[in-house]
Amino acid sequence: MDNIIEVLKEKHNFIIDKNNTLQERRVHLDIGRKYFTKQWILKLIDYMNFLKLNTLTLHFSENKGFRIELSNFPEIVSKKHLTKNEIKEIIQYANERNIEVMPSLDTPGHTRQILSKFPHYGQKDINGNPSKEALSITSSKTLAFIKKLYEEYCELFAGAKNFHIGGDEFMEFEKGEFIQNYMPVLNNYAKNTLGEQYSWKDSFVNYINEIAKLVYDNGFTPRVWNDGLYYGEHNEEIKQKIKMFKEIEVDFWCQMPWNPSISKLNTILDKGHKIYNLNSSYFYYVLREEMPEDGRKMNSFDKKNQYKNIYNQWTPGKFFNNDIDDKHPQIKGAAISIWCDNPEIVDENIIFEDVKKELFAFALKTLDYKINENITFEELYCEI
Question: Are 29 and 59 in contact (CB under 8 A)?
Fold first, then answer.
């Protein structure tokens, strides 16, 4: 049997209810921090094909690496990286199996690798010192520079429907360093370029909109993370006044409970964005910097045997600290993520074994989120 749908039908007489199927069923792979071989990625695609997962995000730019060949500024690229020809092979292999490969170039945060080669493009503070991790959103030269990167990868990934442009963790907005050293610069930029009533939030949104429009004009739907959007919208803070580019879709990964200004899911829904469930408490596998205190390994999900929680507890409307109707029309998909914060602690083959069960559970629940009411995970998995 070629795929999990056939297994369900032939061995369990179970037909997937397409009314319970999510449109996008995705794996998000961090190849920025950690180098993965082409062969490993093709192996992942084979498993995704069996599981009827239909989208693979290649997150190739990070603080700890930049891992796809780049012609315009080759010095940015890490020594171990995928060539453009390898990427084309991966895309073709995936497309032949009805899997889209979505590029992910995350800015203006998560850019330490880029800024290590072009430090003058870092966001300047009140003393004129550039950040080592955050790209400048107040410099026209920086914007022109980063647009060249996006344009080159738009060409490489032409034919894909979506382009993830990041937008997460630009800076820690709630911390004193940002409030004292960077916020005044961004406020001044907003007032001088946009108008007296605008604030630092509009400086940030203005940058996101610029990149979103670029990828949209190149044929992609822009995707961003949730945590920088509509910051402080439900508090008594000054709200952003610039409207987000209307075609932006949102990966909702975390409410960040330590920061009450992170906008709630309903705020993003009310603005009309399509959303994707990346609930980090279920779907984040991480190569961690520190050993968990509950006996988990440093290469792990947030809980032991997470596949059981995914299969038995999660539904499409169960977002991080936000629950909505499973049939909400703006929910367009979900993704399970492989993050490599501490890239060298295990090799790629261990990662594959670590995530197999969770990928299996995730695939079943995104194909038919009520499947656990009819068949146990153990019944299915032991047969494969």
Answer: yes
Which of 169, 233, 249, 358 is catalytic? The answer is 169
- The fold adopted by the segment(s) 22-211+220-367 is TIM Barrel (3.20.20)
pLDDT tens track, the chain, 384 positions: 689 999 999 989 999 999 999 999 999 999 999 999 999 999 999 999 999 999 999 999 999 999 999 999 999 999 999 999 999 999 999 999 999 999 999 999 999 999 999 999 999 999 999 999 999 999 999 999 999 999 999 999 999 999 999 999 999 999 999 999 999 999 999 999 999 999 999 999 999 999 999 999 999 999 999 999 999 988 877 899 999 999 999 999 999 999 999 999 999 999 999 999 999 999 999 999 999 999 999 999 999 999 999 999 999 999 999 999 999 999 999 999 999 999 999 999 999 999 999 999 999 999 999 999 999 999 998 666
Phi and psi at 236, nearest 5°, equal -90, 25
- In three-state form (DSSP H/G/I as H, E/B as E, the rest C), the secondary structure along 337-358 is EEECCCCCCCCHHHHHHHHHHH
Tell me the residue ranges of DSSP E strands in the chain: 24-30, 55-59, 61-62, 65-66, 100-107, 122-124, 130-135, 162-166, 221-225, 249-252, 275-277, 284-287, 299-300, 318-319, 322-323, 331-339
Question: Which amino acid is it at 115?
Answer: L
With a CB cutoff of 8 Å and minimum separation 6, the contacts of 158 are: 218, 219
Q: How is residue 3 written in tokens? A: 């795929």
Q: Are 232 and 261 spatial neighbours (Cβ–Cβ below 8 Å)?
A: yes
Known catalytic residue at 169: yes
CA distance 283 to 57: 14
Q: How far apart are CA 237 and CA 173, in angstroms?
A: 13
DSSP secondary structure string for all residues of 125-194: -TTSPEEEEEE-SS-HHHHHHHHHHHHHHHHHTBTBSEEEEE---SS-TTSHHIIIIIHHHHHHHHHHHT
- Sequence letter at residue 309: N
Q: Which residue has the tokens 């429009």?
A: 213
